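Hey team,

Filing this mostly as a record. A colleague (T.K.) asked me to run one chain through the structure pipeline before their review meeting, and I want the input and output archived in the tracker in case anyone asks later how it was produced. No errors, nothing strange. Just documentation.

Input sequence:
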Amino acid sequence: MLSIPVDLCVGQIKSGSVRIMGIALGCSADGNQKEKHRHEPIASHRAGAASPYAPTLATGDFGWWHDGFRGWERTRDWAVELFGAQRFDGVFGFSQGAALTGLLAALRETETTPMAFDMAIMVGGFTSTAPQHANLFTHQLHVPSLHVMGRNDGIVPMRDSQLLAERFAEPVIIEHAGGHVIPDHLAITTRIAAFVAQHRRVTTPE
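Output structure:
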């Protein structure tokens, strides 16, 4: 089972033979999120996380990018290098991290920047409509995707999360009555865990 801590910036979430790259909000220089959210597990126990923090932390910055996607290129290059060095079964993103997950899913399908992962999970996410990303979204994305969105999300309106889901050919959508959180309701976490189990690649545990 997977336990995904919301309070990490980016971590390698491992359980048995499944390894998920978890991306949350931007971080401050001390490795903490600028905004505080509850630590809400996706499912139960025995998942370790090591945190190769965002490249902006080296300069005391936080966030995957800023207004107008300033800094996106640095984040993109960092992610490409990370995926070139390590194997991930999937990517799990929350908030701005979910928007980044959508961009990584688009990069995954380009010939110039190949990335290998088998699923994308986005919670409270939104999509980029910036001109510099238009070439990434010329078609619907084919990686299996799961989208969790809150009907009372006051930070990322549910319609923005729906627009992100529409970037994908066969999105699985889970709605909940809450706000800008990773919900811990058993009915939802069970579906997320089932999605991971369905799409994970069977490999030999490390």
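Quick notes for T.K.: Residues 1-16, 26-53 have pLDDT under 50 and may be disordered. Residues 51 and 188 are 26 Å apart (CA to CA).
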